[in-house]
Amino acid sequence: MRIVAEHLSYVYNARSPFATKALDDVSLTIEEGEFFGIIGHTGSGKSTFVQHLNGLLRLPSSLKRRKKKDGVVLTVGEFDLTSKKTDFRALRRHVGMVFQYPENQLFAETVFEDVAFGYKNFADKKPERDEVERAVREAITAVGLDYGAVKDMSPFDLSGGQKRRVAIAGVIVTSPEILVLDEPAAGLDPLGKREVMALLHKLKESKCKTVIVVSHDMDEIAENCTNVAVFSDGKVKDVLPPAELFKRTEELFSLGLDVPLTAKLTLALKQRGVEIDCDYTMEDFVAKVLAKRGNVC
Amino acid sequence: MKIGTVLHPRCYNRDNGSMMTKALEYRDVTFSYGEESAFRMEHLNFSVEEGEFVAVLGHNGSGKSTLARLANGLLTPDRGAVAVFGATLTQKNLFEIRKQVGIVFQNPDSQAVASIVEDDVAFGAENVGLKREEIGKRIDFALRAVGMEEFRTATISRLSGGQKQRVSIAGVLALKPKIMILDESTAMLDPRGRREIVEVVKNLNEKEGITVLMITHFMEEALLCSRAVVMNRGEIVMQDTPEGIFRRGEELLTYNLALPRIGEICNRLRAGGMQVRDSLDVNTLAEEISKCVS
Amino acid sequence: MLKDVSFGQYYPVKSFVHNLDPRLKILFLIGYIVAIFLAKEFLALGACALVLVFAVFIARIPFGKVMRAVKGILFLVLFTAVINVFFHGGSAVYWDGPAVLWEWKIFRVTQAGIMFSAFLVLRLFLLVICSSLLTYTTTPVSLTDGIESLLTPLKWVRFPVHELALIMSIALRFIPILMDETERIMNAQKARGAMLDSGGPAKRVKAIVPVLIPLLLSAFHRADELGDAMDARCYSGGKNRTKYKKLRFSWRDLLAAVLLAALIAGVVVMRYFPVFPL
Question: Could you report the per-residue pLDDT of A133-188, keeping only the tens digit for each?
């Protein structure tokens, strides 16, 4: 499923002293099969944007009336999100959304019940027991947990990293084509962070065709994404692959954004007369540096 | 236990012959959260010198927060004692100790009691019964120290995460503590907020001479400290300079921690045959690399 | 963001009314309510209305904001008014025409009934507008400070005035946070296909569980952390505690108090010497 947004705007608390323009004429296309990164600091509109993708935020009706004139477009695959008739339940089944600190939304008595929640909600009629069990088993295994060991445990007895995996399992249980994650690694310890990012790669290969990650961690973005959108003040500044994007170090700094360590090193080396042309993943950076090695060391 | 260490905060340091003051000392502390909990801290000995900036690293559940909460009597050791500037923490001097040991917690949204910045910063100073004029001065001082003077009458819920945490720090500073503990206070912030907090804390350490214990799992933050400590299962398993700690990457992995990325790049370059020295900042490493490429 | 549209939230502008002592504003509200209920005729109520319109004007609260407060109780007020029109009875004559305008079985519309209903509607509107004016112009902290100060005499009978005020202030501080949190959790569960706003009552109650449990857990967690943060800042109850902000009466307060006194006096006089009795 392809995502197309054109001239999308959104205002919180319109007509009040606290009115804030969260999205300002955003146009963005995300192709099927991408590992898409969204960066920008807090309040840049990135969370507002992703919440449109499964209809949690909708175009205000006043905007809908004007949409023909302004050319507002928002489609996810076959779904036209600017239309009143859109079946948002069906849409949400295809667009899984993992919020920040998803473990805070766990509620059921057992891991099994919690993961099954979404599956049962989206089923058209009451699903058979073994059907549910198959889906839940698949989801729990997919996030790298031992189904037999955790299924009857209370989700609240798990460790932080495990809780997060269960929460992700609760979203992918319906096998959504698009998986959107807001800061999936936030608050985890360093090893937990790496494990979650590795997990996303695995999920992209096995379950979800498109993965969209909102993140502050530029190293994560450089290592994983095929394309990156830069949000600032409700606008999309650029959409580029990391290899291109992080060449513009100065520009990102001026937006108050960071760059990956590899980009900082590349810049520092350039100042010392050493040109490295890498795609900013650690692997490529190291390889390119080693290729330049002289006979001195 | 030597009587001298109890009565006099200043004790003789045999290593360099100078007089060192122990700001915070854990003496043979044993602690558990009751029978059901798997967590145990046994015979922990650890001390922090006055003016030090110490990072405490460890994965979730390694006992970092317990360490913080023991320092000002939020938790009481089952056996052993905690001493602040030589004074053993007891029920009697609890509030005196709490004035000296401030703790800033993790969630920027859960620490303020009042809705307006200055009202919240005043809270601690009001609690200890200071006079109005003095409280006013303390608010001035605290807000200046965290760079939030212009937000004095702002509504806290409208601030950014980093600003909220700076208000939390100011609220602790209003008590003029000598020791400040940050219990994962940067964990829920975005990179900008994290930078703000690290800068403020570094400043407090250097300019105000406040002893800082910074609990974090951002390896990069530990690079700024004079000493780093690694905890695992309620035990202190490593203690060294940040460079020293990160030289032992393999060992870190066994405690569920990882090297900072820069350390990993050094390692990979060496594995590829490039003899760069361990460097923990960008410019040093770039220098090392540029020496190796002709 | 739910928190910004909640009813009666502080409206941050600078004005004469904003600067009044919160204690006076609370007393003013009480006095005003007394005046409204003492008023027996339109002239008296009109005077009350005039004072309030004036107060809203100098408080620089936009008219729409005030109307939003009224909208909240509109249904309730109209319902009461309609009931009163049909059942009030009475035989007083206010304009040319029969005293009883329409009658069917137990329903009877009279001139007196219509007047009485109109009076009631006006009274309730004034009441709501005046209370919302208080919350629009007073920060939660000064409101609780005001209440604490006014309740101080109760300390003599060991009533925990300070604790009560602190609880109120913390509650006010955490309401927007918890509302945000509720919205976040609701969104997350909706994304997992939860139908939170459809189905019968039984279904809806069941649907609330996935929202309620995480919300409670988070609230307890926050309470824990807040408790620790308060302890760490030497909190030990109201004993030996000082206050940074002292409430002080100024000329403004005196002016407002005089205005209120005049209003009440006028209303009381009119009660006993009616001009146009209802």
Answer: 999 999 999 999 999 999 999 999 998 889 999 999 999 999 999 999 999 998 88
The amino acid at residue C262 is A
Q: Is B65 domain-assigned?
A: yes
CB of A262 within 8 A of CB of A222? Answer: yes
Mutant choice from C19, C233, C241 vs B, greatest count of B C-beta within 10 A: C233
Give the integer Cα–Cα distance in Å for C242 and B131.
7
Q: Does B262 reach chain A within 8 Å, measured CB to CB? A: yes
Contact between A122 and C184 using a beta-carbon 8 Å cutoff: no
Alpha carbons B85 and B50: distance in angstroms, whole number: 8
Q: What is the pLDDT along chain C (278 residues), one digit of tens a residue?
A: 344 444 457 787 888 889 889 999 999 999 999 999 888 888 888 889 999 999 999 999 888 888 877 887 888 888 888 888 888 777 777 777 777 777 777 788 888 888 888 888 999 999 999 998 998 898 877 888 888 889 888 888 888 888 888 888 888 888 888 988 999 999 999 999 888 777 777 777 888 899 999 999 999 999 999 999 999 999 988 778 888 887 777 888 888 888 888 888 888 888 888 777 66
CB under 8 Å to B12, separation ≥6 — which residues? B19
User: Distance between CA atoms of A5 and C58, rounded to whole angstroms?
Assistant: 46
How confident is the model over A280-295, as pLDDT tens digits? 999 999 999 998 876 5
| Element containing residue B53 per DSSP (H, E) | strand B53-57
Alpha helices in chain A (DSSP H): 46-52, 61-70, 88-94, 111-122, 129-142, 147-150, 160-172, 190-206, 218-224, 242-245, 249-254, 261-271, 282-291
Q: Can you state the angle between helices A160-172 and A190-206, rounded to 10 degrees?
A: 20
CA angle B241, B242, B248 (to 5 degrees): 100
pLDDT by residue (tens digit) across B110-153? 999 988 899 999 999 999 999 999 999 999 999 999 999 999 98
pLDDT at B3: 40
Number of domains in chain B: 1
Neighbours of chain A (3+ CB pairs under 8 A): B, C
Helix (H) or strand (E) holding C259: helix C251-272
Q: Domain coordinates of chain A in residue numbers? A: 3-259, 260-297
The ranges assigned to domains in chain C are 9-138+248-278
The total of other beta-carbon atoms located within 10 Å of residue B288's CB is 18
Chain A positions touching chain B (beta carbons under 8 Å)? 41-43, 159-161, 186-192, 194, 216-217, 219, 256, 258, 261-262, 264-265, 268-269, 271-274, 282, 285-287, 289-290, 292-297
CA A245 to chain centre: 18
Whether the CB of B290 is below 8 Å from some CB of chain A: the reply is yes
* Token pair 């350039």: residue: A270
Residue B84 belongs to domain with CATH number: 3.40.50.300
Q: Nearest Cβ partner of B282 from A191, A268, A285? A: A268
B293 is a domain residue: no
Q: Which residues from A are below 8 Å from C194, CB to CB? A: 117, 121
Of B59, B262, B292, the CB nearest to A261: B262
Phi-psi region of C60 (alpha: psi -120 to 50; beta: other; left: phi over 0): left
Q: Please give, rounded to a whole number of angstroms, the shortest distance from the CA of A277 to a CA of chain C.
A: 42
Which chains form contacts with chain C, at 3 or more CB pairs under 8 Å? A, B
Among B106, B132, B175, the residue with its CB nearest the CB of C244 is: B132
Q: Output the CA angle A36-A223-B265, nearest 5 degrees.
A: 165
Query: Nearest-5° angle of CA B188, CA B193, CA B196?
Result: 135
pTM for this model (two decimals):
0.84
CATH match for A3-259 among 3.40.50.300, 3.40.50.1100, 3.40.1790.10, 3.30.70.100 = 3.40.50.300
